[in-house]
Amino acid sequence: MISSFIGEGKLRKVDYPKLKSIIEGLLFMAGDEGLNPKQLADILELDAGLAAELVRELKEDLDREGRGVQVAEVAGAFRLTTRPEHAPYFERMAYTPTRSALSQAALETLSIVAYRQPITRVEIEEIRGVKSDRAIQSLISKDLIEETGRAEQIGRRSCMERPRHSSTISACRDWMRFRSPNRSIPRSC
């Protein structure tokens, strides 16, 4: 539906389905923070009241169609959330080990651990020059490294090593999908 409205002293044509589609994308990008009507209005160059009404229409559309996401209003901001009735499926997904490819940061971290083990999180971060919490957590969740104890130094930081039950080389081969015996493993692994 295309309609006209007066905004900032001028008459404009509005394509409501297109605006709702744009709002859906904006809410997705905003993540947990969401966007309030004023922010949406500024981005879309609309009146805040119209922006809020478009979000409410989007919410009704998603509900009516039984989509997997919904619009929730939290602390004056709108955000996309999953439907509570689908929670058992999301929990299964969260607790199912995935075999996704490793990020560049995770590969770098795995290489450092393989070469310098045992090594602390701080030492990894000093070598990489950036925080490595996410990469380390990713590698731990994929059982490619593990916390093996505490360093014998001030602060007794956690030490990371490859799991004792697997070799780092075979883990690299598996995660990097080297299946051919003719291809060599990078020295960093």
From TrEMBL:
Which Pfam families does the UniProt record give? SMC_ScpB
Query: Gene encoding it?
Result: scpB
Could you name the domain of life of the organism this protein comes from?
A: Bacteria
> What does the UniProt keyword field contain?
Cell cycle, Cell division, Chromosome partition, Cytoplasm
Fetch the NCBIfam families from UniProt. SMC-Scp complex subunit ScpB
Residue ranges that the Swiss-Prot or TrEMBL entry lists as coiled coil: none
Q: What is this protein called?
A: Segregation and condensation protein B
Source species, please?
Paenibacillus cisolokensis
